[in-house]
Design brief:
It is built from 12 helices and 9 strands. It is α/β, with parallel strands linked by helices. It has 2 domains: 5-180, Rossmann fold, CATH 3.40.50.150; 188-275, no CATH class. It has a 7-stranded mixed β-sheet with strand order 4-3-2-5-6-9-7, with helices on both faces. Strands 1-8 form a two-stranded antiparallel ribbon. Strand 2, helix 2 and strand 3 form a beta-alpha-beta unit. Helix 1 (15-25) packs across helix 2 (42-49) and helix 8 crosses helix 12. The chain starts with 10 loop residues before the first strand and ends with a helix.
Length: 285
């Protein structure tokens, strides 16, 4: 379904700042760079100027009609007037992303880039600061952040001023970069088990990791488990470094290979989330 995303976009206004940020991001020189929501072309223009091949997506005809001839006619630039969310990229290689995406589409676009199709070498997104924190699992979004972390490390490259955009946004914005790992932390064959394990931990409504493990292993096993992890059992979920969750899972598999009580917890977690979203949508009507 065609949507007009420009309504929710705030356009960058300083070409030199854009060029500086592209350089800081260290995009691979030979990659094709996706610009999702080309808008007025400020990012595509700077990417082209730096010698990158650009694949731009923009479905608003009012915006594409006003792109400069210098961009449209450049051999380094290809425009797709389609909804990026419906694009199949599985047969493409050597791709990265540098984009000021529509904030209203942050969740869908980031999931497509970082979870459904983790084929990109670098993903640099200008997003609302709150959304960036969620993608990193800061105070919320733990499961989402761990799924992303399996394939990508991330860091905030830049915090924008509101005056860097036209019109000025009401929220704070940042440039967040995701860097592809040489290989995932958990192999594909074991990833569903990893999700079951993490969802079991998340769904235990208890304050500390020690309490959350209580229904899974014995007190003595917990002591051994936490010692191997060098982890303070009094810590809450968001006080634990993300890498520790992957270490936790690997030790769990090694020490309790036949343990089946975590099986199916990812589906349970999804079902509960789906019900909660339906209730939330109903309450807004």
């Amino acid at each position: 379904m065609t949507q007009n995303f420009s309504i929710s976009q705030n356009f960058l206004s300083n070409p030199e700042l854009v060029k500086k940020l592209i350089k800081v991001s260290e995009l691979p020189a030979l990659d094709t760079i996706l610009d999702i929501g080309v808008g007025k072309g400020i990012i595509s223009a700077q990417l082209i100027d730096l010698g990158y091949k650009v694949l731009g997506f923009e479905i608003d005809p009012n915006l594409t009609a006003n792109l400069s001839a210098e961009i449209i006619n450049n051999n380094l630039f290809q425009l797709k007037q389609t909804d990026f969310l419906s694009e199949n990229l599985n047969n493409k290689t050597d791709l990265s992303v540098f984009s000021n995406i529509p904030y209203s589409q942050t969740t869908k676009i980031s999931q497509k880039l970082l979870i459904e199709n983790p084929i990109f070498n670098r993903v640099c997104l200008i997003v609302q600061e709150e959304s960036a924190h969620r993608l990193q699992g800061i105070n919320e979004g733990l499961l989402l952040s761990l799924i992303i972390f399996n394939n990508y490390d991330s860091k905030i490259l830049y915090k924008f001023k509101k005056s860097d955009f036209l019109p000025k946004p009401r929220v704070n914005s940042v440039l967040i970069e995701f860097i592809k790992r040489d290989k995932p932390l958990v192999v594909k064959e074991k990833f569903e088990n990893f999700l079951d394990f993490i969802c079991f931990v998340i769904m235990q409504q208890k304050p500390s990791i020690n309490d959350r493990l209580a229904g899974l292993i014995t007190t003595r096993e917990k002591e051994i488990f936490l010692n191997l992890l060098r982890l303070d059992g009094r810590l809450s979920l968001y006080q634990i470094d993300k890498l520790k969750y992957f270490e936790m899972f690997k030790i769990f598999l090694d020490k309790f290979p036949k343990h089946t009580s975590i099986k199916g917890y990812y589906k349970k977690y999804q079902a509960i989330n789906s019900r909660n979203q339906k209730v939330y949508r109903t309450s807004l009507r």
